Amino acid sequence: MEKQGQQAETKDDASKVKMREQVEAKEILNKVYKDAQKICKEAQKLADEIYEESKKLSVDKQGIKEADRVRKEAKKEADRVRDLLIAEANVAFRHSFDEATAKYDETMAEMK
């Protein structure tokens, strides 16, 4: 009976390790989401500030139109960078999650 009790503890330990690794991966993913959004907002705010200064310095409508075009482009680029950061974080998260699951499955297979 002791051997079965030890196996159950080991299975439980393996399960705890898997869960801990998956929770850590999720926490990192959430931090990347938050940081990427913060970076995007800061970049968009900077684009707005530059636009406002450019508008003040523009001498004609064409200058204002160009400043507006550049601001829109900068905001799109900020969104694109945010989306790329999040996509890469999702890939890393999925890999980490799958790796934890694979380690757990290996441990369970070795115990049989």
Q: Could you describe the largest sheet, including whether it forms a barrel?
A: none
Helical content (DSSP H or I, runs of 4+)? over 70%
> In angstroms, what is the radius of gyration?
25 Å
**Through-space gap between termini:** 16 Å
Secondary-structure element order, as H and E? HH
Described by the principal axes of the CA atoms, the overall outline is rod-shaped
Query: How many structural domains can be distinguished in the coordinates?
Result: 1
Structural class, by secondary structure, is mainly alpha
Number of strands: 0
Number of helical segments? 2
Query: Uncertain regions: pLDDT < 50 for 5+ in a row?
Result: 1-8
Mean pLDDT across residues: 88
**Hey, roughly how much beta strand do the residues contain?**
under 5%
What attributes does this structure have?
single chain; 112 residues; mainly alpha; 96% helix
